[in-house]
Amino acid sequence: MKKSNFIVMFVIALFLVAGAAIVQAADKVDLTGKWNLSVITPSGPGTPVFTLKQDGNKLTGTYKGYFGEAPVTGTVKGKGFEMKYTMAGVTTVYKGKVDGKKMSGNIDFGGKGTGTFTGNKE
Prior knowledge:
Number of strands: 9
Largest sheet: 8 strands, antiparallel, barrel
Structural class: alpha+beta
CATH topology of the largest domain: Lipocalin
CATH superfamily of the largest domain: Quinohemoprotein amine dehydrogenase alpha subunit, domain 2
Low-confidence stretches: 19-25
Strand content: over 45%
Helix content: 10-25%
Mean pLDDT: 88
Number of domains: 2
């Protein structure tokens, strides 16, 4: 009887571990690639491009938009992310969520204004 209880407990534990791994894998995203964004700001709309590389939960890359180009750094947690760049002394922060090849979220222009964005991965 004790051996059968052990087997049942082992099988239950195996299912719990497998289920947790599946849930964790479903939350993982890969932002590596070229992202074409549409932004809405108090100054009007824009269409910046972010070229990103994800290494674990770390993001690096390049912003290219109306004001020029700048290096990008950031982090990824689950389906959420934060990325930022600095130009002319202003650090702009994008915070959002990823769903497959789409992203959306909010922008903070260094405390000087806010906006929203949506984007698609090429």
